[in-house]
């Protein structure tokens, strides 16, 4: 049925499939509320006014909102299957998302991307999957796959993709490197997402010549205002580690608010369950002083228009019948969720089921940890006088570089006196035996070791510890269980979580995953860790495109100067 066939319904000559009576329609176009009936048929909104329906629902003064949109996220960060993630966020009102699968792609390439696309397209939401631009994130990084322009061209021919994932290698863009510009040119007619932390002035000008449209790495009002003035959309991010909503709100005003939208980027299961998803961002924005309808507008219409998602983001004739029933604008509780005019969630519960057994499980995804034999001495710090140290910043993935000289004799056991731990990255895709070794301040570990197969974005094994013995044991356990997070203390495996899908994702329900992570977090804190989100924060210490100093399996990397640097200075 075409919209032409719906004309008699719109004109009031025939009954609509479904009519909501006595509701308050949130008009994000004018930032107001309209108290009229809402009619839907054939999965689209017919209009509002005086309508009759084959089925009529009395909302008794409740609000009707457009479905929420997450403009940028990595599904893998939720650490549960896509179907489990959908069952979690759709009841919270998220009906549209733009997902960049560069985590699974860095592990298993095209196989992982197609696996995500197949599952995502079989769920009741608007699933928009990007083709990752950075696999690996930079040419020198050691990932499990390489996704060049030729492979991207093949993916475009085979599947339906939304755009090019965040262009993290801004150095490659600014210096005109063919390996990244070939991808950009190939995707120039698609949405191209950005990743431009602290880029300004002529560097930002040059970056934007690539046709990059948005950025989620903006952390200050001045940075946001410059980027907006140069045509960028700012994805205000509120994840588990990076929380920029409060700092960016002062940049949003009546003149420029249409250039701001919401994104979660990376959110852990505990926070999804305890806080929420995009609905949490709306409530937090309101609490911080933003008008409720404007906050909803950022999560709906602004996102749809910025991303080029037509017929989404508003309650209007001809738009998709994707909307929510909300109790009030203070509590913002999502009571019902409708996708294409059909109820898919109610009172926090999904009304749909997906059988994961219907999807093929590629071997390369479920057996992805391949390390060369390691020895305890591989994690011994070489003796020296002055060391280069990664200095962590609370609630940020940005780090600082520090030069540290031990005031007393060099002994590894003395590191914790200065809040310094050993950190290493072990290559886990090709069994090359490469191990990068460094020192890090601010994590706070006082005993044992923590290892994880989540280490953005190449996802080699990252380990932090107080001694070489426990670090080796933790890594060996990761290899044994084919991915996960492991905590070791005094030669004992204290606890672990198994993440068999690419070493990134569990097959358990989100509640069970959340409970296990809370247990692991408590253990980490009992061992002295000071970081609020220790495992996700640790994962970002291996990301060599976010300043200042990071670590890969080839060693310490100075992001700002685009070069590897030695651990021992003198």
Automatic annotation (TrEMBL):
EC nos: 3.5.4.2
Catalytic activity: adenine + H2O + H(+) = hypoxanthine + NH4(+)
Domain (Amidohydrolase-related) ranges: 63-344
Keyword Manganese: yes
Class of the enzyme per the UniProt entry, highest EC level: hydrolase
Cofactor(s) the protein requires to work: Mn(2+)
SUPFAM superfamilies, sorted: Composite domain of metallo-dependent hydrolases, Metallo-dependent hydrolases
Keyword field: Hydrolase, Manganese
Residue ranges occupied by any Adenine deaminase C-terminal domain in the UniProt entry: 416-562
Superkingdom field: Bacteria
InterPro entries to which the protein is assigned, alphabetical: Adenine_deam, Adenine_deam_C, Amidohydro-rel, Metal-dep_hydrolase_composite, Metal_Hydrolase
A GO MF label: adenine deaminase activity
GO biological process, one term: adenine catabolic process
Record flagged with keyword Manganese: yes
CDD domains found in the cross-reference section: AdeC (cd01295)
Family: Belongs to the metallo-dependent hydrolases superfamily. Adenine deaminase family.
PANTHER family linked to this entry: ADENINE DEAMINASE, N-ACETYLGLUCOSAMINE-6-PHOSPHATE DEACETYLASE
Stated name of the protein: Adenine deaminase
Gene label: ade
């Amino acid at each position: 049925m075409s919209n032409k066939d719906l004309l008699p319904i719109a004109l009031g000559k025939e009954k609509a499939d479904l009519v909501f009576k006595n509701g308050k329609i949130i008009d994000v176009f004018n930032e107001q509320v309209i108290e009229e009936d809402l009619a839907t048929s054939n999965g689209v909104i017919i209009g509002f006014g005086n309508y009759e329906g084959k089925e009529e629902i009395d909302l008794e003064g409740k609000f009707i909102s457009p479905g929420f949109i997450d403009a940028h996220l990595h599904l893998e960060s939720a650490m549960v299957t896509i179907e489990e993630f959908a069952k979690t966020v759709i009841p919270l009102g998220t009906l549209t998302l733009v997902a960049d699968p560069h985590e699974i792609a860095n592990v298993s390439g095209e196989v992982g991307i197609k696996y995500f696309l197949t599952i995502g397209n079989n769920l009741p939401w608007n699933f928009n999957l990007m083709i990752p631009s950075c696999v690996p994130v930079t040419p020198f990084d050691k990932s499990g796959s390489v996704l060049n322009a030729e492979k991207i061209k093949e993916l475009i021919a085979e599947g339906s993709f939304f755009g090019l994932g965040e262009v993290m290698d801004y150095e490659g863009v600014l210096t005109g490197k063919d390996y990244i510009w070939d991808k950009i040119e190939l995707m120039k007619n698609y949405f191209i997402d950005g990743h431009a932390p602290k880029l300004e002035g002529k560097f930002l000008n040059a970056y934007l010549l690539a046709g990059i449209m948005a950025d989620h790495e903006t952390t200050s009002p001045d940075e946001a205002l410059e980027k907006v003035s140069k045509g960028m959309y700012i994805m205000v991010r509120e994840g588990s580690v990076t929380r920029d909503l409060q700092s960016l709100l002062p940049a949003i005003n009546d003149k420029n608010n249409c250039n701001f939208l919401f994104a979660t980027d990376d959110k852990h299961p505990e926070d999804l369950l305890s806080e929420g998803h995009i609905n949490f961002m709306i409530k937090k924005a309101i609490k911080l002083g933003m008008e409720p309808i404007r906050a909803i507008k950022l999560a709906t219409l602004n996102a749809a228009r910025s991303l080029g998602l037509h017929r989404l983001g508003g309650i209007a004739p001809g738009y998709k019948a994707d909307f929510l029933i909300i109790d009030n604008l203070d509590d913002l509780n999502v009571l019902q969720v409708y996708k294409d005019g059909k109820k898919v969630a109610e009172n926090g519960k999904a009304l749909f089921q997906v059988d994961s057994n219907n999807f093929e499980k590629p071997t390369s995804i479920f057996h992805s940890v391949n390390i060369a034999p390691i020895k305890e001495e591989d994690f011994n710090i070489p003796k020296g006088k002055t060391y280069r140290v990664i200095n962590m910043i609370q609630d940020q993935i940005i780090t600082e570089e520090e030069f540290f000289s031990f005031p007393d004799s060099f002994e590894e056991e003395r590191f914790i006196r200065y809040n310094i731990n050993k950190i290493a990255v072990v290559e886990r895709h090709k069994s090359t035996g490469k191990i990068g070794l460094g020192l890090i301040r601010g994590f706070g570990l006082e005993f044992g070791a923590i290892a994880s197969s989540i280490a953005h974005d190449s996802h080699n094994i990252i380990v932090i510890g107080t001694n070489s013995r426990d670090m080796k044991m933790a890594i060996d356990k990761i290899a044994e269980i084919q991915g996960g997070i492991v905590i070791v203390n005094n030669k004992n495996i204290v606890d672990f979580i198994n993440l068999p899908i690419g070493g990134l994702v569990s097959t358990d329900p989100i509640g069970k995953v959340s409970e296990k992570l809370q247990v692991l977090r408590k253990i980490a804190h009992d061992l002295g860790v000071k970081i609020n989100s220790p495992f996700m924060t640790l994962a970002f210490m291996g990301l060599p495109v976010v300043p200042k100093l990071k670590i890969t399996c080839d060693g310490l990397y100075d992001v700002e100067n685009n070069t590897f640097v030695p651990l021992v200075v003198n």
